[in-house]
Design a protein that fits this description.
single chain, 452 residues, Dihydrodipicolinate Reductase, domain 2, 2 domains, eleven-stranded mixed beta sheet, six-stranded parallel beta sheet
């Protein structure tokens, strides 16, 4: 067994955040400077699993107040009043939310096919926007969202929370410092092994055209008869969602681009299929993508491999592995940098020669490179260091805090529309590559598909 020289650091305690140049986002106490009578009033549009979670997190940020909730299903509007009070305004029509003058910002957590339209309408109505990832379902719409945010001069933050994480900030700091040398490859994955992990969510027994506005749910999607499964498990269909690539590759791209400051890959190829969760979806349950990043003046060249697996029998895990010339950096709940021992000699291959020749090769080699005993076990030591956030730290809370801080200060967010498109674009191309069964090319600077 190899002995490892290791240390584990809780790197954000007792003022550690200031040492990293980070905002004070570790606890609600750090935000107590927000005046109680200076609340940012917000609404949530789309109050399913993510929308309700985002709303609760947003309300935990001091200086916020929920004013309205919009959802096409009546049961969620009833639940909103149960959770957050009868004075919360509810509606099935998001335009009624945007017309209210007492709303400063909106959280958009609708199905993916509604993101671009509602975001643009919200920006035009003078609202700041927190939009769940992926920012858009079609890459072309990303440019419309970018233009709208600029035109109306509003704050827009995409909801992929690792961009606000102190863990990823530490990984970025280590990467920029050269902790692993020259980057060559990145591997990232999300493995799940449950029905809920594969988006088989509960369908309420009262779901019907009377309790759910089906036409409003469909929006720009192809028209079809009422289908409660599509309404409540919409991620499983490409008419409304963006599959494992749009939903989960985007998280991985967000982390990689944040850490490396890369703008995106130039070549995309994806493969996968429906292997287990068949019969009630057209989105694959396993996707593997390969992405080539070219070197630019400020960004490294590297190869990226992404995997999302909903059929994993080995447990539910996710993480990143950055491999460089000087070591490996792993990012998950914390950051671990491992540096293998430097080779002190080039090595030799005497076994392919005659015994006499081999004996001479070994003798000459050992005359030049004397054999060493590194330690009592004759094993070399690797250097390993792990950095961990404080107990109870929440990426979600940090991300919402950063959003509301930007709403109040009018300073840039950590994940704006351009960042959002650069994370969504390669993921959407992975879908295109999968369905078209061919390599796709992407212009990461201008954020456009390159047709060849």
């Amino acid at each position: 067994m190899v002995r490892m020289a290791s240390s584990r650091r809780h790197f954000l305690q007792a003022g550690g955040a200031a040492g990293l140049g980070l905002p004070a986002i570790l606890s609600s106490q750090a935000l107590a400077q927000t005046p109680a009578n200076d609340k940012i009033q917000f609404a949530t549009i789309g109050c399913g699993i993510m929308g309700s979670g985002d709303t609760s997190t947003a309300l935990s940020v001091p200086g916020t107040k929920l004013v309205a909730v919009c959802d096409v299903y009546e049961g969620r509007l009833i639940r909103a009043k149960e959770q957050w009070g009868n004075d919360v305004f509810t509606t099935r029509d998001y335009r009624e939310v945007l017309s209210r003058k007492d709303i400063d910002a909106v959280i958009i957590a609708t199905p993916d096919h509604w993101h671009a339209q509602i975001t643009q309408d919200a920006l035009a109505a003078g609202k700041d926007v927190y939009c769940q990832k992926p920012m858009v379902k079609q890459w072309q719409d990303g440019h419309k969202v970018i233009d709208a945010a600029r035109k109306y001069n509003r704050i827009l933050q995409v909801g992929s929370q690792c961009a606000s994480s102190v863990v990823y900030k530490k990984a970025q700091e280590l990467f920029r410092s050269g902790a692993i040398g020259q980057l060559s490859t990145v591997e990232a994955w999300i493995d799940r092994n449950s029905a809920l992990g594969a988006w088989r969510y509960s369908i309420p027994p009262d779901a019907s055209p009377a309790t759910l506005d089906w036409d409003r749910f469909l929006g720009s999607a192809p028209k079809r008869p009422f289908d409660a499964q599509r309404a409540f498990q919409w991620r499983n269909w490409s008419d409304y969602g963006t599959g494992v690539a749009g939903d989960l590759f985007v998280h991985l791209f967000t982390g990689i681009h944040f850490i490396t400051s890369s703008m995106g890959p130039v070549r995309v190829f994806a493969s996968g299929g429906l292997y287990f969760w068949k019969g009630d979806r057209d989105a694959p349950d396993i996707v593997v993508g390969l992405f080539d990043y070219e070197k630019t003046e400020n960004h490294p060249a590297f190869n990226l491999a992404l995997r999302v697996n909903f059929v994993c029998g080995g447990g539910e895990t996710s993480g990143f592995k950055f491999t460089g010339s000087e070591g490996v950096m792993r990012v998950a709940h914390g950051v671990t940098v491992t540096k293998p021992p430097k080779p002190s000699e080039p090595g030799m291959t005497p076994g392919q020669f005659s015994s006499a020749t081999a004996k001479n090769i070994i003798a000459e080699y050992r005359a030049k490179y004397p054999e060493k005993v590194v330690n009592a076990d004759n094993l070399e030591l690797s250097e390993e260091e792990t950095f961990l956030p404080p107990h109870g730290y929440s990426n979600d809370f940090a991300h919402h805090t950063n959003f509301f801080n930007s709403v109040r200060s009018r300073q840039p967010v950590v994940e704006d529309a351009t960042f959002g498109l650069r994370a969504a674009g390669p993921a959407l191309l992975a879908n295109m590559s999968y369905y078209e069964n061919r390599l796709k090319q992407w212009d990461p600077v201008n954020m456009r598909v390159v047709e060849v």
